[in-house]
User: Which sequence fits this backbone?
């Protein structure tokens, strides 16, 4: 049993017993591992429900299965970006879920998740767009120089029907929403909570591992793509910690996907989407990424590692030249509580 005793502020203070200690921290909040676990469970349920809604809607609109067991193949064939639509449908419940967790379990403000606005936010968003595009362009450059890019043509959806402006606009919106939803869960919520109890390094590593785990069900996933997604998660977590805001991580994530998918016409984590151009790569899957896309390529491993190293180097130098706590630490310390 627990015991209520007067606190220093005159109010009751909870003395934790052996039964409550594994669940409640001294400040009477649910401990971080439980909050993260519950949020992940809610996230999975949101995506499962969204998948059902998208599939049922697609079937009602005429995307009929060609047989009793190949509905997914039929949808991928005629609407290859339908999994991205799931992210958009899941976004409102995800936002509500994170808000409730932040308000009632974390007892912190929504703004403290990294939504501070102002001129730095615009600058950070622009830098994120550059970094995400650079990671993909640095990955494709060696392939182009070595002759692995066999053909480059105007875009298409990768399926018999041609893609048009409507498809591209839909995919653009889906990529923006998908990047925001994943960053909201992995960086804004999970990293912020783990960082609060274990520090920034553990927060970046754990959130990156969870981020990679959430991609384990993607088509054509294997060991190397998982490693590269882990590296991408480390990069995203690092820029989030260095800036103390979500904007750079969000736009970096978006431009990473948009550059390889909408611009180059390569699979995005195993998914083919309508694009402006479509490259055909030849060679070993280890260097081209195969059906998973550039995220399954060793060149992407090199590119992500280089950019991560540069970001860490700049961040370390920045901390050394700024008096007092760095931006991320001061932001974390000054964020208001609810």
Assistant:
């Amino acid at each position: 049993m627990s015991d209520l005793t007067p606190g220093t502020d005159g109010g009751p203070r909870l003395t934790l017993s052996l039964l409550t200690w594994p669940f409640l921290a001294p400040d009477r909040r649910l401990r971080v591992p439980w909050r993260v676990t519950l949020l992940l469970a809610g996230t999975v349920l949101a995506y499962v429900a969204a998948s059902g809604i998208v599939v049922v809607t697609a079937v009602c609109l005429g995307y009929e299965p060609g047989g009793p067991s190949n509905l997914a193949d039929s949808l991928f064939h005629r609407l290859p970006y339908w999994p991205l639509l799931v992210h958009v449908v899941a976004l409102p419940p995800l936002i509500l879920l994170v808000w409730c967790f932040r308000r009632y379990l974390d007892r912190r403000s929504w703004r403290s998740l990294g939504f501070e606005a102002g001129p730095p936010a615009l600058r950070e968003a622009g830098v994120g767009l550059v970094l995400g595009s650079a990671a993909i362009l640095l990955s494709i450059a060696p392939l182009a120089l070595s002759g692995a890019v066999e053909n480059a043509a105007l875009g298409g959806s990768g399926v018999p029907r041609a893609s048009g402006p409507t498809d591209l606009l839909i995919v653009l919106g889906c990529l923006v929403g998908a990047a925001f939803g994943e960053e909201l869960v992995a960086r804004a919520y999970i990293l912020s909570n783990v960082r609060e109890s274990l520090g920034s390094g553990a927060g970046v590593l754990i959130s990156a591992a969870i981020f990679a785990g959430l991609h384990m069900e993607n088509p054509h996933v294997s060991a190397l793509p998982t490693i590269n997604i882990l590296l991408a998660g480390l990069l995203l977590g690092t820029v989030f910690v260095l800036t103390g805001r979500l904007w750079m991580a969000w736009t970096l994530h978006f431009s990473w996907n948009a550059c390889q998918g909408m611009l180059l016409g390569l699979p995005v984590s195993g998914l083919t989407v309508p694009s402006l151009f479509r490259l055909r790569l030849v060679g070993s899957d280890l260097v081209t990424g195969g059906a998973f896309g550039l995220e399954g390529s060793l060149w992407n491993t090199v590119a992500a590692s280089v950019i991560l190293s540069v970001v860490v180097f700049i961040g370390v130098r920045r901390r050394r030249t700024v008096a007092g706590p760095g931006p991320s630490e001061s932001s974390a310390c000054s964020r208001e509580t609810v």
